[in-house]
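Progress report, Aim 2. The chain analyzed during this reporting quarter is listed below.
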Amino acid sequence: MIPETINHAGANGEENPLLEVIDLKTWFPIKRGLFSIGAGNVRAVDGVSFTINRNETLGLVGESGCGKTTLGRTLLQLEKASGGEILFNGVSIPSLGRREMNRLRRHIQVIFQDPLSSLNPRMNVMDIVTEGLVQFGMIEGSRQEHAARLLQEVGLGRDAIHRWPHEFSGGQRQRISIARALSLKPDLIICDEAVSALDVSVQAQVINLLLKLQESHRLSYLFISHDVSVVSNIADRVAVMYLGQIVEIGNAADIIGNPMHPYTRVLIAAVPVAGGKRIDAHIVRGEAPSPASPPEGCRFHPRCPEVMAHCKQMPPPVTTLENGRMVMCHLYG
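Predicted structure tokens for the chain:
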């Protein structure tokens, strides 16, 4: 049963993690031939574990195809988990029935990458931002006043209420998406590449808005992005994902200032610096392998500049360091 109001305190008075993900797997079967015979699996998410606390932002970074978006969709149950556990305030999400999952969606919302395709072109702004309120019976008073208040919170004027999505710029449309997500007073918002389609100046405005809303509403974010520089401006902790696995996780300042996994170093070195040079091409080799046939041993070893002989044979251990930092690499095992 999903409570209408969530209690976050544990039996000892301390706050439990809002979200706890344990050894999560999302595999997609490969079917071949006339009779759709199984020919393996695409291991999009393969043994991922992390937590998100109340009023905290976890940044999830990695190059395209590493499984970030699939992970977010699995948390929302838009994709079915193949294994592992997802606990939202102690409630197992994969075990919920359809009705209970619909109730839980009030507490977990999402902001998608492309606001134009995620906003219904046949609905005006008032209908878009109050649709969830109507669905959950949370409308008190005028629907128009609810919409005006939500738009004001995200920096849009009252005159936007009766306009249509195509009449706005990309940044304004994303603010409408944020207002829609905010309308149900959620505890967790999954931001899936929420600023990657925006200009740099607009990205900064939207990030500042998300930080402001987090402070006023005590929100938690899972902020998914391929851009380390963007994540460094919003995240409290950072998780680095490669080929379906989290290879390093820790405080944002520690990860950005002192990356330990070779892949994390590559991601950070690739960030352009004013007046500086980008990463040398020879440091990282080739393209990422297919998640349908990941390499034996460490999955990063075919591209790693610090590869050792046993990296090709044995999966690396997960090593816990100071400040709760974890890294999956034979350099520290």
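The chain has a mean pLDDT of 89. The two ends are 42 Å apart (CA to CA). These observations will guide the mutagenesis work planned for the next reporting period.
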